[in-house]
Amino acid sequence: MGKNKGKKFKSGVDMLYFAPITNIDYDKLDADPNDETAYTYGSWIRARGAEEVNLESQFASSNTAADNNKNYITQKKNNGYAGNVRVTTLPPEFFTEICRMVNFVEDSETIPLPFATAWEYKEEGVKVRRILWHCELTQLPAIKHTTESGELTIDDDQISINANPREGSNKITAPCTEGEPAFATFFDAVPQPSAFDGGSVKISGDDTVEVSSTITLTATTAPAGKAVTWSSLDEDNATVTSGGVVSGVAEGTATIKCALTSDPTVFTTKTITVTAAE
After folding, report:
1. What's the rounded Cα separation, in Å, for the pair 158 and 161?
2. pLDDT digits (tens, 9 = 90+) for 43-97
3. Is the peptide bond before 223 cis (omega within 30 degrees of 0)?
4. Number of H helices and number of E strands within the chain?
5. For the segment 102-119, what is each residue's pLDDT rounded down to a tens digit?
6. Which of 7, 12, 139, 171 has the smallest count of CB within 10 Å of its CB?
7. Domain check: are 232 and 120 in the same one?
8. Contact predicate 270/217, CB 8 Å
9. Same domain, yes or no, for 125 and 166?
10. 80 and 208 in a common domain
């Protein structure tokens, strides 16, 4: 959400869509928890007049982290997001396809479907499209009134949701930035999590360095060739250059972090042991 820590997604929404998850094949998930074909999505439903998305990351002492990140500077983990989505006009399809209302009447025996939500906003002047895949309503939206003709009209409604990691996966959200190949077709179909994965980064190299000596770490990214940013979380023990060269400063351990420059929420770390010079 790094950037994921205490992350909020808020306001500046240009487009907002919902897609019901119409079926989850648990037999497939039992066989392969990461089988993306286990999920069947309905069509995107566009909310006309989106106002804001206000979601905060939910920390917990868990080994599962949102956004496919396994480590945070604070060593806290993220169980997903919770908060509110506000719209000026909520489409009737949201009630019929996701809330599963019949004639816009709530049935206490009917459980609303989980859904994906996707939206567009600007981050530092750049357009970003982002998805939360597995959302659940924590409070059904109220139907405020109907017109005399019987047509449903919703004015300024707020939806309270929890966005949880998908079954067997720690991926719940993926960004797609303007200029990336998928950006133009982002809303044409319900994207699968792998389609807009923010990428990954791995560190290879020695695990130890002597005081006053150096080692060079190498970053491997997917997609290949992405720019990375290096940093040391323990500069009293070791420093690192922009090229991954680690210098031993004092005996102890140092955590070296390598993040994608384009999306700092995607990162990995490596622990380096600093030993006395021989």
Report:
1. 10
2. 999 987 778 888 887 766 544 455 544 444 444 456 788 888 888 778 889 999 9
3. yes
4. 2, 21
5. 887 777 788 899 999 998
6. 139
7. no
8. yes
9. yes
10. no
